[in-house]
Amino acid sequence: MISVNDFKTGLTIEIDGGLWKVVDFQHVKPGKGAAFVRSKLKNLRTGAVQEKTFRAGEKVGKAHIANRKMQFLYESAGAYVFMDTENYEQIELNAGQIEYELNYLKENMEVNILMYESETIGVDLPNTVILRVEETEPGIKGDTASGGSKPAKMETGLMVNVPFFVNADDMLIVNTTDGSYVSRA
């Protein structure tokens, strides 16, 4: 058990048989009344985000999530196949389980698979990934120092706002938490 006063972003907890990841939290001490913790939780099984308020000091169960390093192999009929890099065991995840992560997954990419007991919960992406620009408007000479941006479609289908100097087939570093452009690779 863990106290809600010890919440951290990314912590995984168990409430009413559900697995939840703490996305955001805020300790509130009103002038009148008892203190409480306002939190935003993401259901790891369904992906639904819910806001929940706890009394200060309330206890919740801590879920122990294991990470297995796996390699994304291929997609076949809506099933995404991952292989354990140590024992070559393969698992399949459906598109609903990794809907957000599909914007960043490329074949042969190594990721961490989140496991709870024997259940596969989802995919933990690295902070940044390198993706190729599939299509974007051509850059105009002299636009390299301006602060504007234009949309670019990446090889995975993700749309990213990039600086004007980026062209098709450029390799870019993209942030996986918010889908933003970081730099050229």
TrEMBL record:
Biological or metabolic pathway of the protein: Protein biosynthesis; polypeptide chain elongation
The molecular function GO annotations come to:
translation elongation factor activity
Q: One Pfam family, please name it.
A: EFP_N
Q: Where is the Translation elongation factor P/YeiP central domain?
A: 67-121
Can you quote a single GO CC term?
Answer: cytosol
Checking HAMAP family in the record gives:
EF_P
Similarity comment: family membership: Belongs to the elongation factor P family.
Query: What is the recorded name of this protein?
Result: Elongation factor P
Gene responsible for this protein: efp
